Amino acid sequence: MQELVIEAGRTERHYWRDLWRYRELFYFLAWRDILVRYKQTVLGIAWAVIRPFLTTVAFTAVFKGIAKLSAPGGLPYPLFVMAAVLPWQFFSSSLSESSNSLVTNANLISKIYFPRLIVPAGAVITSFVDFLITLGLLALFMIWYRFVPDWRILTFPLFILLAFGAAFGAGLWLCALNVEYRDFRYIIPFIVQFGLYFSPVGFASADVSAKWRLLYSLNPMVGVIDGFRWSLLRGKSSLDWSTTLLSMTVVILLMASGIWYFRKMERTFADVI
Amino acid sequence: MSDAIIQVENLGKRYRIAHQQQQRSYMALRDVIAHKLAAPFRVLKGRTPRSEIAAPSSDLRPPSSRMEDFWALRNVSFEVKQGEVVGIIGRNGAGKSTLLKILSRITEPSEGRVRLRARVASLLEVGTGFHPELTARENIFLNGAILGMHRAEIRRKFDEIVAFAEVEKFLDTPVKHYSSGMYVRLAFAVAAHLEPEILIVDEVLAVGDAAFQKKSLGKMGHVARTEARTVLFVSHNMTAVQTLCHRALMLAGGELIAAGPVATVVSRYLREAQGSNEEKHWTDPQTAPGNELIRIKRVRILPEGDSELLTMHSPLRLETEYWVVKDGAATHLTYHLINDQGIIVLTTGCPSETRTPGCYRAIFQIPGNLLNSGGYFLKLLIVLNENQVAYENDGIASFTVVDAAARNHACLGREPGVVQPVLTWKTINIQA
Fold first, then answer.
1. Vertex A220, ends A219 and A222: CA angle to 5°?
2. How far apart are CA A176 and CA A59, in angstroms?
3. For chain A, which residues score pLDDT lower than 50?
4. Contact between chains at B27 and A11 (C-beta distance less than 8 A)
5. Predicted local distance difference test score (pLDDT) of residue B77
6. Which of A135, B232, B341, B352 is least surrounded by Cβ atoms within 10 Å, i.e. has the fewest?
7. What pLDDT digit, counting tens, does each position of B372-422 carry?
8. Residues whose CB falls within 8 Å of the CB of residue B70, separated by 6 or more in sequence, listed in order
């Protein structure tokens, strides 16, 4: 019979095995959040589509209509915007969901053992399901504009993975910080709001002057959005591989450090939540 | 290596408690920043000894002279063997919940070690993770998963759970529309159908109405007795502990102060819980309760016979010592025995008599197998000339009658009723 030893600072050993053992809980939590999210709403799941649709319309109006920007390679502007709105919305909603996830599940944390990593991960998954639905909207847009992607779409999963990593890494940090310091509840909306302006959602990242480009690509969402546009829109929006690699590095660092910090703080979650 | 399935060595859990005006467990970043900025100045003043900074739980916590270590649990060691049912008792704050939290891995110990040699499931609260928007069906699956059941396992037991909770008709209603009783029944039903090797249960039995309590305690008893499961059971219901458990551990102030056969530990617990409220006494006739006729010196409630406790089954003796102050008045004492629901259970008085000044002792007995378990208080009346109430004291003394006997039937709760005499039943066959 296997033996489990509980000791100060000893939880480490079983952690990853436990994560696997509790995979069903992971599935159930995500399932619960998806089920609950649109209960008692009139439009239900349609909300997942309405938000990116309206954002796209508004951004097209502002950046094309008022600021007179144009999309590279003669792309229809709404399509150009939407390819960025989707990952951005996925990122921002998983950020806000996962950062609050531990606090809203406080009753679970203080009563039941399971690898806590499941909670923020479940929140990201929930946003990911919404994201998959919005991909359908993008498909409709493509049909409307009679736009067919080329071979580059094969690289699309890679950029989804990158978006996932960025959302999860940042989510872990904020989630752990939010348990200890509830100030983050107020900081997160700002991050989400400002992030929208610091990410090339309504415009092309090529519009950013070369001087700032390097600094700009430290924002992991720059690589994600550029990648989305490049892979979905036949490469009409150019992709700078060096900045993409930089973004990837940032995302990997964010994930690794997020997991490290989360694991470090996890032991005390039940005591401080 | 011993054959213990749970081995606890020197377990301790330390919390740091902050003495602040606002009591909150989490911190605001603002406080930390403010504290860090102020830290150099404090060091200059030499107010913060370095040792205080060694917080194992979180280095971000500001060291402060207002922080204090609090050991919720310390030096606790015990072993539990396969198939044993062990009760954990103690007053509120004795460390029971902390112990369970460590055993179920919710929180980490600060020192010591636990070895577990089987799968553990803990039930620290019924209905953990229930979501009000979800239906009963959905919640059963969700809650089951949270408690560590696999989907196939839940599906197999689904009908049994639903039948046990008696919610067949409302299976597809969101539980937010449930009455609190239905909610609790459903929650308990899921938990009761768990099948881990070690089950840790905390006070989940006092749920639902009387009928459901019987049912849930019966289920617990069944699990403990017939399935040979290892169970750690925390409860304030001594009857349940006595009946379900083989052994008991008693905690007080975070330390293990007694361990052994359940009857011994439970009676020690009850003795300490009863405390000194069975005796009141006053030394100064000027200020003692009473009036110009009579002053009360002492009121004592004692168990009679070989019982050390005031139990339902043992007779009680009530002694009243008093000073007669005024000469030549015909007086007598009357007691109302009032239970904790405020019902007067009985009234008793001594015959009226004129006594000369001095000190007297009056004694009466309440027979065993009469009072139900629970708290009682005594209302004292000093009566002049047979019918004039000259003095009343609403709570001159109080005591608790406990039910300390194990029972052999399913009901482990307090039977309803003001009194609980033992009646003899006789059943004869009148028609074949």
1. 75
2. 33
3. none
4. no
5. 92
6. B341
7. 888 888 889 999 888 888 888 888 888 888 877 766 555 566 777 889 888
8. B14, B15, B16, B17
Tokens found for residue B159: 């009908």
CB contact under 8 A, B111 and A8: yes
Test mutation, B106, B131, B194, chain A, max A CBs within 10 A: B106
Q: What is the pLDDT of residue B116?
A: 87
B112 close contact with A: CB closer than 8 A: yes
Across the interface, whether the CB atoms of B57 and A111 are under 8 A apart is answered no
Share of chain B above pLDDT 70, in %: 84
Distance CA B108, CA B72 (A): 12
What domains are defined for chain B? 20-65 (no CATH), 74-274 (3.40.50.300), 280-401 (2.70.50.60)
Please give the full DSSP string across A227-257, using - where no structure is assigned: HHHHHHTTT-S---HHHHHHHHHHHHHHHHH
Has residue B206 got a pLDDT over 70? no
Between residues B184 and B274, the one the model is more confident about: B184
Is residue B215 within 8 Å of B192, Cβ to Cβ?
A: no
- pLDDT over 60 (residue B59): no
Q: Using one digit for the tens of pLDDT, what is the confidence trace for A105-127? A: 888 888 888 888 889 998 999 89
Q: b vs e for A14-37, b when ≥16 Cβ sit within 10 Å of the residue's Cβ? A: beeebbeebebbbebbbbbbbbbb
Q: How many helices (H) and strands (E) does chain B have?
A: 8, 18
Cα separation, B68 vs B153, in Å, equals 46
**In terms of Cα–Cα distance, which of B308, B306, B313 is closest to B273?**
B308
Domain extents in chain A:
11-272
DSSP state of B300: E
pLDDT band of residue B39 (cuts 50, 70, 90) is low
Instruction: Name, in order, each residue with C-beta under 8 angstroms of A219's C-beta and a sequence gap of 6 or more.
Output: A195, A198, A199, A247
Instruction: Mark yes or no for CB contact B113/A271 under 8 Å.
Output: no
Long-range contacts of B337-345 (CB under 8 A, 24+ apart): B337/B366, B337/B376, B337/B378, B338/B376, B338/B377, B338/B378, B338/B379, B339/B372, B339/B374, B339/B375, B339/B376, B339/B418, B340/B374, B340/B375, B340/B376, B340/B377, B343/B418, B345/B371, B345/B376, B345/B418, B345/B419
**Ordered DSSP codes for B36-78:** HHHHHHHHHHT-S-GGGG--SS-TTSPP-TTEEEEEEEEEEEE
Each residue's pLDDT tens digit, B275-304? 555 678 888 888 888 888 899 999 989 888
Rounded to the nearest angstrom, the gap between the alpha carbon of residue A141 and the centroid of all alpha carbons in its chain is 22
Vertex A82: Cα angle to A76 and A87 (nearest 5): 150
B:69-108 residues touching chain A, CB 8 A cutoff: 101-108
CA distance B253 to chain A (A): 19
Structure tokens at B220: 């617990």
Q: How far is CA A39 from the centre of its chain?
A: 23
- Could you tell me the CA-to-CA distances from A169 to A23, A150, A197 in Å, in that order? 19, 31, 20
> Cβ distance B423 to B370 under 8 Å?
no
User: Is residue B73 a contact partner of residue B13, using CB atoms and an 8 Å limit?
Assistant: yes
* Helix residue ranges, H only, chain A: 15-21, 23-37, 47-59, 77-104, 106-109, 118-144, 156-180, 184-198, 210-216, 220-232, 241-272
Distance in Å, alpha carbon of A126 to nearest chain B alpha carbon:
16
